[in-house]
Amino acid sequence: MASPKIKTYEKYVVGDMKKTHAFACDIIKPPDGSRSAQNKLAMKSIKQRKMNYLLANKKGIQMKKIIFAVLTLSVIGFSISESQLIRGYGIKVGVASTSQNWEWAPTVGVTAASTAAHQSLEVGAFIEWLDIPLFSVLTEIQYIRKGSDVTTNVPMTTIENPDGNGQFISYSTEISYLSVPILAKLRMNGGLLSPYIVAGPRFDFCLTSSGAFSKSDLKTMNVGGTFGVGVESASILPIQVGLEFRYSPDSQASYSTPFLTVKNRSLELLLVLSM
Q1: Beta bridge partners of residue 197, listed in sequence order
Q2: Separation between Cα atoms, residue 46 and residue 21, nearest integer Å
Q3: Per-block average pLDDT, block size 10, for the chain (275 residues)?
């Protein structure tokens, strides 16, 4: 007589989870009631599944504890780092007087007889890092226009006036930049007012150009320096007010050929509003 095939379920309550899980298998009971080899394998499979489940559950609980600890430490670390790393942030707005140094090769025989500066609006934002006494670091991003009017020693000639008509060849440039200074700041903590100095590298990215040069004529990025002095009010109000004056020359030429190089420089007076 063929042995009937009976489907049974064995239930286990698993540790701390207090959840009942059922494992199903096909168990064949022979007529004499003894367990067959297939039955023994099925029972072994159930026990193995139980062990695997318990092990996976244990690992899952440990992983949850690790994730919770990491998240907790991250929140605490962020709060601590924010209070220690960031001293303040805000905006700077003011005026800039910009000029350029035009230099021709000696073989060309051209010089700049006169140069007139351009005035432009300067606006930007900053973050001041390292909330420690006397020293901090400024990272800034600013918009500024640079340029000048240059008159050369070369006379303008016409057919009627081959030796010149009294006027000279001149050029005008207007270049807008996205400027990114990274400045070290040394300050003297006073009473209501605290003086400070700033210095560091600056990276200018060309946005637009009009006048003597097109954007394609110019370097995409210029490197220069910024040096300045300022004074800031004490932190007695929600907004800290300051005034800053600085000088920003380029160390690289914005325009360069074998015959002519042009470098930017600027003087800036900025109102500083920080939180």
Answers
A1: 186, 229
A2: 11
A3: 40 38 42 51 56 54 57 51 76 97 94 93 95 92 96 89 87 96 92 93 97 95 97 82 97 95 97 93
Q: Does 260 share its domain with 220?
A: yes
Shared-domain flag, residues 75 and 148: no
Give the range of the structural domain holding residue 245, as residue numbers without chain letter: 86-274
Secondary structure in 3-state letters for the chain: CCCCEEEEEEEEEEHHHCEEEEEEEEEECCCCCCCCHHHHHHHHHHHHHHHHHHHHHHHHHHHHHHHHHHHHHHHHHHHHHHHHHEEEEEEEEEEEEEEEEEEECCCCCCCEEEEEEEEEEEEEEEEEECCCCCEEEEEEEEEEEEEEEEEEEEECCCCCCCCCCCCEEEEEEEEEEEEEEEEEEEECCCCCEEEEEEEEEEEEEEEEEEECCCHHHCCCEEEEEEEEEEEEECCCCCCEEEEEEEEEEECCCCEECCCEEEEEEEEEEEEEEEC
User: How many domains is the chain partitioned into structurally?
Assistant: 2
Domain termination site, one of 32, 58, 82? 82
Same domain, 138 and 218: yes
Does residue 58 sit in the same domain as residue 91? no
Q: How far apart are CA 143 and CA 129, in angstroms?
A: 21
Looking at the structure, tell me whether residues 116 and 67 fall in a common domain. Answer: no
